[in-house]
Amino acid sequence: MxxxxxVSQEExxxxxxxxxxxxxxxxxxxxxxxxxxxxxxxxxxxxDYVFEGPDGKLRLIDLFEGRTQLIVYHFMFHPEWDxxxxxxxxxxxxxxxxxxxxxxxxDTTYALVSRAPSEKLERYKAKKGWVLPWYSTGDGDFSYxxxxxxxxxxxxxxxxxxxxxxxAAMGHESMKxxxxxxxxxxxxxxxxxxxxxxxxxxVYARGLEGTGGSYYxxxxxxxxxxxxxxxxxxxxxxxxxxxxxxxx
Length: 248
Description:
Blueprint: H1 9-38, E1 43-44, E2 50-53, E3 56-59, E4 69-74, H2 86-93, H3 97-105, E5 108-114, H4 118-128, E6 134-136, H5 142-145, E7 149-150, E8 158-159, E9 162-163, H6 164-169, H7 174-177, E10 182-183, E11 186-193, E12 196-204, H8 214-218
Parallel strand pairs: 4-5, 5-6
Antiparallel strand pairs: 1-12, 2-3, 4-11, 7-10, 8-9, 11-12
């Protein structure tokens, strides 16, 4: 494991203030980006999507639960699977009741959707002890049209606003050669106005890493996320459970 340089408190403070200036600029950039996100145009959702929940069939507007906004997490759960995607599970494991309550105070509902049957979703939800709503899209158009299910035979050959051919050209051939249909994670945001539903935003890939939030906490630590792609190289090596040696 590589470790940060050991310096005096005075030297550390100088470096910390230099980094603070960059952090402040990143915060301002994020505020500007968030403004642009809120200024995105929206598109009306006119298709009558049908979902299955523990109490029967629902329409998209029902998922709002009477609130103005809806955030949908596209949870990877193939109809043939008995358990959900481990990565999606890790993020949702961190979604606490307090998180949902805080969204509700801002007139916003958070829900999961997957292609697996509702009975499987409810069984897995009970196993995990989750309290958030979870609906099945079945093999309807919703998951496909919102970029979370890939099936070129049905005309859905894009993920994160790139075609499968573009991914292959970037060196990610498996995106094109994998058995289809297959699911990918995503998040879609909706707004309802006078009974009309509008899509305001969708995000995929690393745009989802805020789900749960632990990655962002780890970003503040010396060892980071402990992933091999992180810099400085070698920082993650043996990190989990390792005890640093400061004796030399």
